[in-house]
Amino acid sequence: MLLSRLLLCLFLLVFAAACEPTKQARSVETSGFLGTLYPLMHKGAEGEALLLYRNPKVETVPRGTYKKMWLDRAEIWAEPTSDPARLAQSQNVANLLYALTYQSLARDYEMVEQPGPGTIHIQAAITRADPAYVVLRAVSTVPAPMNALAVASALKNLGTGKPLFVGDASIEVKVSDSMTQEILGASADRRVGNKRLDADSFDSWDDVHKALIYWSEKIRYRFCQERHAKGMQDQPCEPPKE
User: Fold this and answer.
1) How many whole angstroms separate alpha carbon 81 and alpha carbon 213?
2) What is the C-alpha separation between 102 and 111, in angstroms, rounded?
3) Is the pLDDT of residue 140 over 90?
């Protein structure tokens, strides 16, 4: 009886926090995409990417200097595979990241396809994109004390920050001045699915897609913060939902 109560408390603790479809993971593996920038990066604070680099010179750039964005097509830097289906899926994820980010930034900037004055160059890579196991996730989401999959998933979530059977995605991004090619900033981040039962949760790639949506909105939010960092309140910045 006592064990059942303890398990029930465990489930209430875990599932009460799983309101959003994805959440930030506790760690991210680097891929090599950012090259020599890794030694310059540090752990991000709450609400930031897991790994960050910010060029100190950014503080000296007058606000409003950059009015255009040059966004490269997203690259794939995940583990090599010879599976045609997985290759196609990875390319779909990269294409979606590009499309979502383009649409998000186009709300505030003129989008261009070449370097020029007042233009920021953004390069991004998908470094991990793993689908969810939808049937097992659905079964393990039912918070029954005698549900072995649910117990295992809850314990793994508490121990590692990632429940069993959910999707998993990582990206790396670098931002530079398009004319000088000087790196202004870089980041690496990872998001994993939450335990949930809704219509979207039965799409094995939904966790990955939701993570891409979050990142595309987050980058727009960060640039908005940069534009308004010195007390400019004419256009409040809206952070994406966690």
Assistant:
1) 25
2) 8
3) no
